[in-house]
């Protein structure tokens, strides 16, 4: 059944509504089957195959949404049951022991965000209720949850760093604080890089450099300098190894 779903996704043309109304129903039925199988298929190779096929499905859904079908937009909106179940799958698998499953789970999340964007095209993503709820949900999780970092990084690309910082200005400091744990340091440094790069682009587009550079430094550089002077040995070591080169490259 799993590979029958994969075959249908691979063989059929989903772009621009070429499959018509019946094709849309088939697309929705396929994801229902895949999600129902996710609780049954625990063996490593099957779990990997399922995650890959779910990622293929999300790509097919993005292609199908290009048709502008109102019914499909309703069924694949961020508030829909399907998106809710996909998010449950993501939260369950984003720290899966297999690299391949974790990688596909990140891809599914990125595509899910694109799907929602396609259903609300024309409205402001920065004030979108679905994205706002998702950001708050992720920020409410503990920083030891590794899936939090990659998912927040994906959301930064949708809503922008500034909008996330408006919810909590201490986020950069919170992320730096977890960098005394070597297992989290690579995730933390990648998220910080995504955030400060996006933030710099935001400022560059809107203001002259003389008006924003000090503010950017206060948010991203000053907390780093404090930790380098006052932090413990492990924390400063991991920051120098993982984070400092990225910040210097951007600055």
TrEMBL record:
Residues 1-20 form the signal peptide. GO terms for cellular component: cytosol. Keywords: Signal. InterPro entries: tRNA_methyltransferase_THADA (IPR051954). The keyword Signal applies. It comes from the Eukaryota. The keyword Cell membrane does not apply. Coiled coil: none annotated. GO terms for biological process: tRNA methylation. PANTHER family: THADA/DEATH RECEPTOR INTERACTING PROTEIN, THYROID ADENOMA-ASSOCIATED PROTEIN. This is THADA, armadillo repeat containing. It comes from Hypotaenidia okinawae.
């Amino acid at each position: 059944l799993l590979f029958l779903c994969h075959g249908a996704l691979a063989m059929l043309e989903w772009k621009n509504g070429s499959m018509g109304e019946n094709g849309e129903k088939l697309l929705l039925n396929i994801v229902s089957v895949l999600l129902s199988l996710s609780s049954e298929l625990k063996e490593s190779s099957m779990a990997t195959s399922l995650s890959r096929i779910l990622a293929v499905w999300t790509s097919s859904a993005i292609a199908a949404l290009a048709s502008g079908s109102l019914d499909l937009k309703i069924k694949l909106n961020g508030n829909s049951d399907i998106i809710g179940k996909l998010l449950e799958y993501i939260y369950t698998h984003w720290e899966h022991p297999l690299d391949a499953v974790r990688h596909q789970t990140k891809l599914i999340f990125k595509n899910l965000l694109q799907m929602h964007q396609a259903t609300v095209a024309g409205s402001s993503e920065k004030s979108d209720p679905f994205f706002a709820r998702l950001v708050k949900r992720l920020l409410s999780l503990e920083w030891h949850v590794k899936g939090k970092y990659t998912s927040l990084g994906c959301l930064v690309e949708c809503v922008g760093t500034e909008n996330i910082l408006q919810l909590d200005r201490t986020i950069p400091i919170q992320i730096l604080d977890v960098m005394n744990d070597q297992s989290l340091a690579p995730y933390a440094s990648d998220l910080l890089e995504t955030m400060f790069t996006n933030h710099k682009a935001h400022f560059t587009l809107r203001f002259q450099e003389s008006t924003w550079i000090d503010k950017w430094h206060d948010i991203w550089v000053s907390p780093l300098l404090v930790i380098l002077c006052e932090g413990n040995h492990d924390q400063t070591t991991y920051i120098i190894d993982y984070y400092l080169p990225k910040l210097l490259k951007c600055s």
